[in-house]
């Protein structure tokens, strides 16, 4: 089967014509529905900051460029100041600006390109594991309120182990802590962390495990983004608390663990109950509940975001309208002025037509015609009768003049062949023979005669 473009004449059918706006809208829906969120790296150029707070710019490399827009609710979360010439890494969805038909990107996230490749790899792994259900809230288990022993997987020489032990010593010194040493940075770190986690699960000496490390760059924390380590954390038979880096740092183990702590010290507070004050224990449990609820809400929000990519969210239309706001303002003013002028002109034309169709003028014309008919009706009847008699006399005189009797009175006669009253008039001597009877009419009577033979 051969498919023809929409505006190609089809034999036996009609031409299907698109409007420009409909074509752009359908192209926008096709672009946004066919491409997932994409990561791109490029250089900022043509950066514009209108009063609306949105950012408009071009993202280019050495061979091509593409227009892009980053709306205010997104660029407020930037950790740096965008400027022309800056190399950045962006996460964006592909769209089309309908009013002008321009292909463009809608930027959801932007960062400087130094950590871009690692960040892209992290996001890809995160999305993969989330799609498998590894981060589902239903998989999370509650921490024991009163653990018999706490396990700590971290470097024995790092600052994280000292912070955790200090907090646990203050809050619950009677609960023993078992340290499973492992490297937390470098090429061998993922394997050692997995081995320590496997050992803790095999021995079953602890009721809860803390996977901890101090802060650092994305490269420093990369061991905690290992895919297999995240799977092992999610599959652990013992509840795991992930406390990697500072509060702003997030690794795959944070999503796979049963609970994420913003810092190693916070993890110790979450795991170790304060046995000195029962009221403090209650408050700790309350804080733990709040954190769990926030974590579940955050995971639910991420799921909603993932689902919203499959449909066209009304937010996208709002972004589109926000982009048109500056252009529509001037057009609206011009259109209002034009409409007022057109209404004034139309009102003037209708006034002229109304004056031309004024009933008073038509009444005046009919009144004049009625007066003329009235005057004609009032002419005296005898005058009309005299005119008729005069005309009749003239016609009688003309008839008398044309009568044959008037001709006979002037001395003429008419000869008929035969003496009957309906005889034919004699017109030639060849119409008679000797012995033919003739009747000659004069003005005062008839004369009968007979044709005699010619004398020799």
What does this molecule look like?
- Helices cover 45% and strands 18% of the residues.
- It is α/β, with parallel strands linked by helices and 456 residues long.
- Among the domains are: 20-120, Nucleic acid-binding proteins (OB fold (Dihydrolipoamide Acetyltransferase, E2P), Beta Barrel); 132-292, Rossmann fold, CATH 3.40.50; 404-450, no CATH class.
- The protein has a five-stranded mixed barrel with strand order 1-2-3-5-4. It has a five-stranded parallel β-sheet with strand order 7-6-8-9-10.
- Helix 5 runs parallel beside helix 6 (227-235).
- The longest helix has 43 residues, at 314-356.
- The radius of gyration is 58 Å and the shape is rod-shaped.
Give the arrangement of secondary structure elements:
Layout: H1 20-34, E1 38-48, E2 55-60, E3 65-70, H2 72-75, E4 87-97, E5 102-112, H3 116-131, E6 150-154, H4 159-171, E7 177-181, H5 189-203, E8 208-213, H6 227-235, E9 240-244, H7 252-256, E10 259-260, H8 264-271, H9 278-308, H10 314-356, H11 359-377, H12 381-401, H13 404-409, E11 414-417, E12 437-441, E13 446-450
Parallel strand pairs: 3-5, 6-7, 6-8, 8-9, 9-10
Antiparallel strand pairs: 1-2, 1-4, 2-3, 4-5, 11-12, 12-13
Mean pLDDT across every amino acid position: 83
- Derived from helix and strand composition plus strand pairing, the structural class reads alpha/beta
Overall morphology? rod-shaped
Number of strands: 13
């Amino acid at each position: 089967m051969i498919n023809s473009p929409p505006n190609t004449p089809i034999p036996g059918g009609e031409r299907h014509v698109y409007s420009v706006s409909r074509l752009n809208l359908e192209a926008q829906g096709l672009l946004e529905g066919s491409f997932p969120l994409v990561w791109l790296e490029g250089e900022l150029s043509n950066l514009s900051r209108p009063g609306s707070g949105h950012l408009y710019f071009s993202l280019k490399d050495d061979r091509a460029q593409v227009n892009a827009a980053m709306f205010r609710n997104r660029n407020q979360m930037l950790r740096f100041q965008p400027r022309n010439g800056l190399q950045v890494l962006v996460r964006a969805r592909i769209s089309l600006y309908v009013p002008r038909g321009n292909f463009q990107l809608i930027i959801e996230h932007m960062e400087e390109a130094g950590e871009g490749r690692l960040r892209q790899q992290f996001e890809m792994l995160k999305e993969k594991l989330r799609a498998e259900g590894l981060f589902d809230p239903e998989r999370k288990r509650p921490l024991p309120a009163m653990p018999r022993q706490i396990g700590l997987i971290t470097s024995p020489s790092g600052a994280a182990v000292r912070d955790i032990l200090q907090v646990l010593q203050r809050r619950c010194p009677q609960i023993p802590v078992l340290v499973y040493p492992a490297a937390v940075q470098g090429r061998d770190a993922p394997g050692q962390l997995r081995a320590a986690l496997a050992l803790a699960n095999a021995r079953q000496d602890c009721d809860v495990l803390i996977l901890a490390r101090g802060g650092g760059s994305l490269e420093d924390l990369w061991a905690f983004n290992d895919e297999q380590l995240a799977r092992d954390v999610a599959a652990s038979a013992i509840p795991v608390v992930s406390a990697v880096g500072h509060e702003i740092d997030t690794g795959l183990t944070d999503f796979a663990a049963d609970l994420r702590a913003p810092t190693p010290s916070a993890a110790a507070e979450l795991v170790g109950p304060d046995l000195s004050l029962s009221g403090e224990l209650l408050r700790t449990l309350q804080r733990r509940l709040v954190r769990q609820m926030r974590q579940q809400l955050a995971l639910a929000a991420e799921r909603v975001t993932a689902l919203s990519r499959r449909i066209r969210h009304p937010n996208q239309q709002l972004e589109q309208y926000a982009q048109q706001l500056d252009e529509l303002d001037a057009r609206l003013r011009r259109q209002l002025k034009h409409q007022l002028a057109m209404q004034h002109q139309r009102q003037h034309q209708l006034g002229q037509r109304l004056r031309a169709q004024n009933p008073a003028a038509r009444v005046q014309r009919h009144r004049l015609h009625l007066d003329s008919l009235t005057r004609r009706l009032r002419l005296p009847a005898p005058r009309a009768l005299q005119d008729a008699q005069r005309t009749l006399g003239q016609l009688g005189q003309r008839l008398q003049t044309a009568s044959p009797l008037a001709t006979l009175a002037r001395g003429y006669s008419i000869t008929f062949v035969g003496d009957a009253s309906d005889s034919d008039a004699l017109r030639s001597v060849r119409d008679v023979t000797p012995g033919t009877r003739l009747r000659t009419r004069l003005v005062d009577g008839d004369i009968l005669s007979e044709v005699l033979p010619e004398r020799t």
